[in-house]
């Protein structure tokens, strides 16, 4: 089966370890149509309104990894878990700030092809119980003839329910994008439209000022953070454009915008 035909069965969910008001501003900066809904105390879920992996022929895994990375870097204080699947595989990617992403993959029949260390890192970055929750995750890394790839994702969300995750009724990993979108609309999810230039600036300020990093908007720390984001974003943007990767291009654009606006904000705030 070629990549294009496989992508027709693809879908994704983005789980954010934050409430919807905190997720809304950075999610709009992705310039993608997304549906936002609460998913339990301290959790939100983003459902793609479109199917960019069909339009660009890019694997769903790569697209949502770019989104998750951009969101996590922009938010800085909460991680983003991307669940993805297609006709051949399913898996997750966890992004947390500037840390390297961690992921795990299962074949369609449920066969684990990830590394155990990745699952342990996943648990540590989400601050799961190092004993009980890690033990609950271990069966997901072992062969099981009765579990397919979609069942593995459901099992993963079941473990995360111990942290408060509660997906809206009817919203399940592995379903078709059309069903996910339909269920999200029925559950009253909010449609996030792509932000324009002015809205982007306003959203950037809302993200930073509304979070715990607000007191550090000005001064050496703010300038260091902005410079680091520009240094990371420019090569990432060039790499994404060169490979025509929508997900990574979005991550690069967001990093460059975030860093540039941060530096500009610091300078403007110093103007009497």
In short:
This protein is an alpha+beta fold and 272 residues long.
Description:
The chain has two domains: 3-191, no CATH class; 213-269. It has eleven helices and seven strands. It has helices at 3-7, 20-28, 52-55, 60-75, 116-125, 132-137, 149-160, 177-186, 197-209, 220-242, 246-269; strands spanning 11-16, 34-38, 44-48, 80-85, 89-95, 102-107, 190-192. α2 (20-28) runs antiparallel to α9 and α4 packs parallel to α11 (246-269). It starts with a helix and ends with a helix. The model is unreliable at 1-5 (pLDDT under 50).
Give the topology.
Elements: H1 3-7, E1 11-16, H2 20-28, E2 34-38, E3 44-48, H3 52-55, H4 60-75, E4 80-85, E5 89-95, E6 102-107, H5 116-125, H6 132-137, H7 149-160, H8 177-186, E7 190-192, H9 197-209, H10 220-242, H11 246-269
Antiparallel strand pairs: 1-3, 1-4, 2-3, 2-7, 4-5, 5-6
Helix pairs in contact: 2-4, 2-9, 4-11, 10-11
What distinguishing features does this structure have?
272 residues, alpha+beta, seven-stranded antiparallel β-sheet, 7 strands, 49% helix, globular, disordered N terminus
The biggest beta sheet is recorded as: 7 strands, antiparallel
Strand order of the largest sheet: 6-5-4-1-3-2-7
SSE pattern: HEHEEHHEEEHHHHEHHH
What's the number of extended β-strand segments? 7
- Summed up, the domain count is 2
Overall pLDDT level: 82
């Amino acid at each position: 089966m070629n990549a294009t035909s496989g992508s027709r069965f693809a879908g994704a969910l983005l789980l954010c370890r934050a409430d919807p008001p905190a997720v809304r501003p950075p999610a709009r900066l992705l310039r993608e149509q997304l549906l936002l809904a609460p998913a339990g105390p301290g959790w939100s879920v983003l459902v793609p309104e479109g199917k960019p992996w069909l339009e660009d022929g890019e694997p769903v895994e790569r697209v949502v990894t770019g989104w998750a990375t951009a969101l996590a870097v922009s938010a800085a204080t909460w991680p983003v878990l991307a669940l993805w699947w297609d006709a051949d595989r399913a898996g997750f990617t966890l992004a947390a700030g500037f840390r390297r992403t961690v992921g795990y993959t299962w074949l369609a029949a449920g066969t684990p092809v990830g590394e155990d260390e990745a699952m342990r890192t996943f648990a540590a970055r989400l601050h799961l119980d190092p004993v009980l929750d890690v033990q609950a995750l271990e069966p997901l890394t072992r062969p099981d003839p009765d579990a397919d790839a979609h069942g593995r994702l459901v099992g993963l969300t079941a473990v995360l329910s111990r942290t408060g995750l509660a997906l809206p009724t009817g919203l399940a990993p592995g379903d078709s994008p059309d069903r996910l979108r339909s269920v999200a609309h029925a559950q009253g999810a909010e449609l996030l439209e792509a932000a324009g230039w002015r809205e982007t600036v306003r959203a950037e300020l809302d993200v930073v000022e509304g979070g715990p990093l607000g007191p550090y908007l000005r001064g050496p720390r703010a300038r260091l953070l902005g410079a680091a984001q520009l240094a990371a974003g420019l090569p990432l943007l060039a790499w994404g454009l060169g490979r025509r990767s929508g997900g990574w291009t979005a991550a690069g654009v967001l990093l460059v915008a975030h860093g540039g606006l941060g530096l500009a904000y610091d300078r403007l705030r110093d103007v009497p």
